Amino acid sequence: MSKVTIIGGGVSGLAAGIYAQLSGLESEIFESHTVIGGQCTSWKRKGFHIDNCVHWMTGTSPKKEIYQVWEDVGVVGDGCKMISHDYFLQVDIDGIKGHAWRDLDKMEAELLSVAPEDKKVIHKLIKAIRDFQNIELPALKPKEQMGFWDNMKLLWKMRKAIPVAVKYGKMNIGDLAQMFQSPIIRQIIYNYVPETYFAISTLYMYAMFAAGNADLPLGGSDSITLKMRDRYLQLGGKISTKKKALSIDIEGSRCKSVNFEDGTTAEVENLICATDISVTFKLIGDKYMDDHFRFCYANPDKFPVFSDLDIYYAVDVPTDDIPTMEIFNCEPYTVAGRDCKTIIVNNFADQPGFAPEGKGIIEVLVVQYDYQYEYWEKLYADREAYRAEKMRIAQEVLQRLEKHYPQYRGKLSVIEAVTPKSFNRYTGAYKGSYMGFIQTHLVKKETHPGVLPGLDNFYLAGQWLQTPGGLPNALVTGRFAIQRLMKRENILQQFCCKKNTFLSKK
Fold first, then answer.
1. What is the DSSP letter of 438?
2. 71: left (phi > 0), else alpha (psi -120 to 50), else beta?
3. Can you give the pTM of this predicted structure?
4. 291: exposed, middle or buried (C-beta count within 10 Å: 0-12, 13-18, 19+)?
5. Contact 312, 425 (CB under 8 A)
6. Which of 495, 481, 59 has its CA nearest to residue 275?
7. Could you give the C-alpha distances from 420 to 180, 305, 306, 312, in angstroms and in order?
8. Mean pLDDT over the full length of the chain
9. Start-to-end C-alpha separation, the chain
């Protein structure tokens, strides 16, 4: 029996472990933290549950390939409950409201009522979202293992989406937003990601939501990682926590062992690195970095990263009258040298147990660009100044929340503030990014082959392999890593799942 050593217990590492066990391989996951989950994480603070990852999850529709993968790892399917919202977000500009509704007819009618001057482009936007519901994230085979008929089947599924991708493929979100006169619609298009982001990302987001393929797991991030952990352990996998990898010993073209901070060593037969990609190259050395990643790092204008400043507030009463997600304009405030004129609120009222009985918890997200990470990293050298700046911002945001939600005046208090530096410290995330490299309109979309030149028994898994990253890409690349390993090792096997699928064969 072949053995697989997996570094990293996030979604991609857990997925790789599950598919290794389903394929009859022996595997062990080594996680640096005390708990598994990676960036799909949550924790307790002052009696409240802080969820710092999932706001929606692609792959909740049985009509899509990725649903099968989520089902294989135990996250969807029998007994797994999802929260389905009527709208993705509400935008409030000076008291005028607009929504990204799941019902696209309703969304179109509302947008026409608030912005009749944008009639023509509203019709085009809604049609693009409708057509983009046919987009498919290939989730069952890695690109290089897809044959002619696999590709033909994929193209047929996406035949209505392809013209949309071509039409909007040269735009970023800022370009798309500027097609509209209405500030409401512009903000709906911007939502909560940077304007340099690929325009079709917004179309994809709303299309998946409208198609019922972007719901929220009941229980949030824990619902994902704990179900995956339990599935992996039930299949006979082994997890070792508090095992921070320091280096990987390589002889010739093969990884031989992994050295851990606690002084122990793990011998390696096959190795999957499911860590942040910057951590991966610290372990094996930059000399193994291929042209793809060298180009990404050398061209941040084409492959930027971004993160968030996330501020969590306890509310002394239930928050049932705050939208699930809302963006409203406000008096400007400064974060890491950049003026912000909006507040993005995420309300957890529909998640049982996130707040004590009779109370609520809300999150404010402030987008942070990669250059702002440098600000937080430098400030962190002075812990007192770092904490003071977080509190200053949190209090200024609190004032704006109370102005917008006067019924909560005097009932809000700061629980936690998480900066890009926090993401870096706890997960090793490059510049605090909780996504991978962000695809822009300046480059052609590419997927990484998941292996590196010069290493015969080494495989990559994780969101950095496929732009723009996130949970679905982390998930499928864990599966792909096992498929690539089995093809290279000439192992013919089936996944022992509800739907058996041949991994690969030579």
1. P
2. alpha
3. 0.94
4. exposed
5. no
6. 481
7. 32, 11, 9, 15
8. 93
9. 19
